[in-house]
Every structure is written in structure tokens, then in C-alpha cells.
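It is worth pausing here to work through a concrete case rather than discussing structure prediction in the abstract. The textbook approach is simple: state the sequence, then state the predicted structure, then interpret. We follow exactly that order.
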Amino acid sequence: MYLYVSYPSFIKPWIFSGLPIRWYSLMYLVAFALTYIVFKAYQRKEKPLRSLDEDLTASLFYYAIGFLLLGARVGSCLIYDDFAYYITHPWMMFWPFSEGRFVGLPGMSYHGGVVGCALGVFLFSRKYRQYSFLSLTDGLLCGIPLGFTFGRIGNFLNGELWGRISDKPWAMVFPGAPTFSTTKSWVRDMADRIGMEYVAGDYLNLPRHPSQLYEAFFEGLFLFLIIWLVVRPLVRDRKPGFITGFYLIGYGTVRFMLEYFREPDSQIGFVIQLGERSEPLALFLSPWNFSMGQVLCAIMIIAGLFILLLRSRSAKESSK
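Step two, the predicted structure:
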């Protein structure tokens, strides 16, 4: 009996064979559409944005989405790829060809997207000063987690961003994941535990946490329900910014914990390594080794706490 799951063979990253259109790209469109729908629902319920008409709402989304995509791509290249190369060849960040083939823009960074989206919304708020930056981010962040659910489902359909090696019965063998030699004792031990057959000297593709699905649920649907059903009603009569602060803290905390189930980027490894050395990166050996994603999430949490502190102080001063 096999104690693992094989990645479904019928799932392909391409929507149409022969065309460079991936499910992940389609999921971006679904995410933007859902965020727009939730934002419109927020508008009908919350006073600060009721006067935002259809044209201004469309303009806001053009700013937010345009700068989100820009920030996500730039962030991916500078944070997770070859910084020295891209800083000296910035135009290559948006060059969609590789070795004569059209490959699109394969790398996108969530945290870079957050910075880009924030910049876009800030520029919109500067142009239309009757709408504050934080009131706009509050509205957008009510829907962004729901949209993010489909972004991570897109990662799963692409068979990318897999998790660390696991012997859980729901752990999954991803076709594109690195393999490991059975000359290593830990590889043989894992194979024996999960009932994976092998011949001495084989390279095995071991099962991993489907971390994309963990993130889709907890960073997406779960966080959306908490913000929409709990946080939004609680802060309805307060000054703008509380939803933004809670989102940054909530996402940062959830993603920080889920990073323990996700394999760190091989080209970066651990940014902070205080515990036992993990070799390979796909093994979890210590909670004191921190990935780039965890460092960036810690910054998000600090930023969220800072916003909540400022908003709380402002609310107290206005009530005096």
C-alpha cells in the first residue's frame, strides 16, 4: 500500500496545447474579477467609498493591478533571481523570450506585488484626494485574499512551488520536483516508510506537502472569511486602516507558519540559519532556519502592527 498521492497525470500547466497560456495566468484574471466583486460589495456597505463611481472604480483597479504586476515581476527578479544581472539589465525583467522560445514572464513575487499595489493605490489617492489611501486599501484587502486563493490553485495546476518532503498520507509526488539518490540513508528510510519501491542507486522523487493548497486555503479563503465576517464588522465605525493592519498581520502570520511546509528557493536557501543545517532544503530539521518569505512576512507583521498603533492613537485623540 502506497502512503502517498501521485500528482494527477491529466493536469497540465497549459490551457491549450502548443500555446504558452498557463492556468496560472487564467487564475490571475479570476483573482482580479473576484477582488472587484468583493470590493463593490464593500462599497455598498461602507460609507468612505460609496461615492466612488464606476469610472473611478475602474481607474483604481487599473492603478492597483498595473502596479501589482509591475511590482510582482520586479520583486521576483531582484529578490528571488539574479539581482546583479537584472539590476544591470533591467529590460530583461520584461523580455518574454528564452532561447528563441516565448516563455512569458514566469516569475512573480507576492511581496513585490504588495509593494507595487500599494504604490498604485497611493498614486490614485494622490490624484483623487477625496479618497484616503487607507480607506482604499481597506476595501481592496477585503477581497484580495479570496482572489489569492485562485492564485495558489494556479501554482498547484502548474505543478510548481511544491512543499517539503513528507510521509503524510496526503503528501504528493510532483513530476517536476528534484529527485534524491537512494545512496543516502534518509532517502531509503523515507521510501521504506511510505512503501515506495526502489533499486539501490535509484533516484527517487519523494512525496511532498501540497503547500500550494495549504496556502490557497489559509492565506486565501480562511483569511477572507476572517476579514469579511469578523474584522470588517468590528471596525466599521472606526477610522480607515484597521482592515489594512489586520490583513498585513494576518497574512504575514499565516504565511510565516506555512513557509515551514514549503521548500525554500534553492538559489537563496535560508536567509537566517540559527538551527541545524538542512541538507537538502527539502527536509525540515529546525524551526530556527528562516526563508526569504518568512523574513518578508515578519516585515509585513511589523508594518501591520505599526498601522494599527497609529490608527488606535488617532482614534483615542479624536475621541477626547
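Step three, interpretation. The beta strands are 5-6, 97-98, 101-102, 172-173, 180-181, 203-204, 270-273, 289-291. The mean pLDDT is 91.
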